[in-house]
């Protein structure tokens, strides 16, 4: 860890550092952080643990990068980040570390998983002190849309604004689909976009009720589609044709074969 921190300071050195690293800012690095986080998730989904080790290193490097820039501005250091995290985790896990004391680890806890979750939320609320004026003010607007939708729905559900039964969510999806069809008849692109957003929000709500991450579920479908379409390309090539030469019916037949092959 010491070598990594020193390496980062060298990369940012004003005289002998790397030209690219020296010119980076918090905002310019942010998209890379999101990309690295998704690459970690991808390695987990593929159960590629050797690659996961590498991707976790890349994600850690993002944290070190931010901390180096903050230290240069005399805001905080990487050690401040780590110390703050330890302090917070000790505070939020009194059932594991009584009185927030790391030395007291090992004393058994009788709390249930539900009680632990309630305790966690209570401690978080106490940390904030005065509650936010608005329920959704803590949900970052820069968060990816699907993830943000889930967070919004979780927040309002905690104050009682939620469907009591999953069947009602299905009804809501059907209602939104009907409204989308009506918008299409109007040929109003802006209205179509709005109704499409409502459909996606309702489907995301269904995923939350089913305790499924819509982001991960969609990512798995993307992977499956890529795998199957890759097989379609192989079958088309075996017929000595190009994709553009095949009819939709022919491509559908190849797609069905890929499905039968378990892809």
UniProtKB/TrEMBL annotation:
It comes from the Bacteria. SUPFAM superfamilies: all-alpha NTP pyrophosphatases. Belongs to the nucleoside triphosphate pyrophosphohydrolase family. The keyword Hydrolase applies. GO terms for molecular function: ATP diphosphatase activity. It holds the Pfam family MazG. The lineage of its organism: Bacteria, Pseudomonadati, Pseudomonadota, Gammaproteobacteria, Oceanospirillales. Keywords: Hydrolase. Its EC number is 3.6.1.8. This is Nucleoside triphosphate pyrophosphohydrolase.
